[in-house]
Amino acid sequence: MVRLAVAALSSTLRSPRLTSLLGVALGVAFGVCFVTGLLSHLIQHPPGWFWWPSRPVQLYRFTQGLHVATGLATLPLLGVKLWAVYPKLFGWPPVRGILHAAERASVAVLVAAALFQVVGGLFNVYHWYGLMPFFFTTGHYWVAWLAVGALLVHIAVQLPVVRGELGRGKPADPARRRLLTGTAAAAGLITLATAGQTVRWLTPVSVLAPRREKLPVNRTAAAAGIGVIGPDYRLVVTGGTREIALDLAALNALDQHTAELPIACVEGWSATATWSGVRLRDLVTLAGGDPERAEVLVESLQQGGRYRASELPAEHVRDPLTLLALRVDGQVLPPDHGYPVRLIAPNRPGVLQTKWVGRLTLRERS
Ligand SMILES: Nc1nc2c(c(=O)[nH]1)N[C@H]1C(S)=C(S)[C@@H](COP(=O)(O)O)O[C@H]1N2
Ligand SMILES: [Mo]
């Protein structure tokens, strides 16, 4: 009885129209996710032609929040879509010719790549690195191209079907409408349950958001191997016409400025704080560099690790909001937020907001 009912239900629910609707929703979500992800990659590994502004200060926070939110929202869509089409896997004959074989292969690549991206992204957001035997960012980047290539082939092949299905006004089937509403609701719930990590007024309802603290810490001072900062600490600025080395008293004696800026982690969490300290452009001037043209390499006291250094393009160096912060929210920086000095610049990924800064090297692009 139950089996029959389920069979009857699925036969009415599974239809080219349902598959088309889910496909369009997935296509849009993946498209947004791909473009925002590519942008994040370009900002972190800028090729010569690439330019990224320092304003609006919240832009990266928005694009990366969107990247993670659209990625997570694809989970239920992907689940239902795979359910809607999987009987096709067992269609007979398995291959009806060269084109058909190519199409099936592209679908296999698409499904595998999509699952890899969404599941890998999820692991990354929740810091389950142990489950990934490779460096996440590299895998995520290259598989994204694979997914998009396969997606474009898939769209090209299926477009006529989708057009036919969605162009024709059809009487709505209540059961199918319920399924679609349920899928949309699941995507909405996932979004609500996680968006609070970046849309801060949603934090109370975002029970699945992994980083709900007011200002999360990505890597602690202990984890980065930063010991006690003694009186011999100096911030060294080189590459200008004179090298300078400033101790904490000297840094505190310079003009102090305040900026309200977010840390926007690639993992999707973000939080705004009030930072104060010395303008980077003032330090460039002090060291005999040109604050309008200099680019700056920012290095941490941290000995190793992928995120021990970052580079600031001229756009960000000259921005008066770019600070070497000594304080956050009116307090001396806590060790975990980068004591004695950290970089905070507008419209940049969190990974580039270097903590425990020890050295700045000026460069001028010729
Ligand atoms: N030296 C150093 N700076 C670093 C990191 C690091 O691992 N080492 N992590 C970065 C990352 S990934 C983020 S998101 C921010 C987080 O800053 P917070 O811990 O003060 O919130 O610091 C950045 N600065
Ligand atoms: Mo981060």
What is the molecular shape? elongated
Largest sheet: 5 strands, mixed
Gyration radius from CA atoms, angstroms:
25 Å
Question: How many strand elements?
Answer: 10
The residue ranges in which pLDDT falls below 50 over 5 or more consecutive positions are none
Termini distance? 78 Å
Structural class: alpha+beta
The average pLDDT is: 93
Going across the major beta sheet, what is the strand order? Answer: 2-1-10-5-6
Q: Share of helix among residues?
A: 40-55%
**Element-by-element helix/strand order:** HHHHHHEEHEEHEEHEEEE
- In DSSP terms (H or I, runs of 4 or more residues), the helix count works out at 9
Ligand inventory reads: ligand MTE, molybdenum atom
- Beta percentage is 15-25%
Structure description:
This protein is α+β, with helices and mostly antiparallel strands and 366 residues long. The protein is 46% helix and 15% strand. The protein has helices at residues 2-13, 16-44, 59-85, 98-125, 136-167, 174-195, 248-253, 280-286, 314-318, and strands at residues 235-238, 244-246, 257-264, 270-279, 294-300, 309-312, 323-328, 331-332, 342-344, 357-364. The protein has a five-stranded mixed beta sheet. Strands 3, 4, 7, 8 and 9 form a five-stranded antiparallel beta sheet that branches. Helix 2 runs antiparallel to helix 5 (136-167) and helix 4 crosses helix 5 (136-167). The radius of gyration is 25 Å and the shape is elongated. The chain binds the ligand Nc1nc2c(c(=O)[nH]1)N[C@H]1C(S)=C(S)[C@@H](COP(=O)(O)O)O[C@H]1N2 and molybdenum atom (MO). Molybdenum atom binds at residues 218, 265-267, 350-351. The ligand Nc1nc2c(c(=O)[nH]1)N[C@H]1C(S)=C(S)[C@@H](COP(=O)(O)O)O[C@H]1N2 binds next to loops.
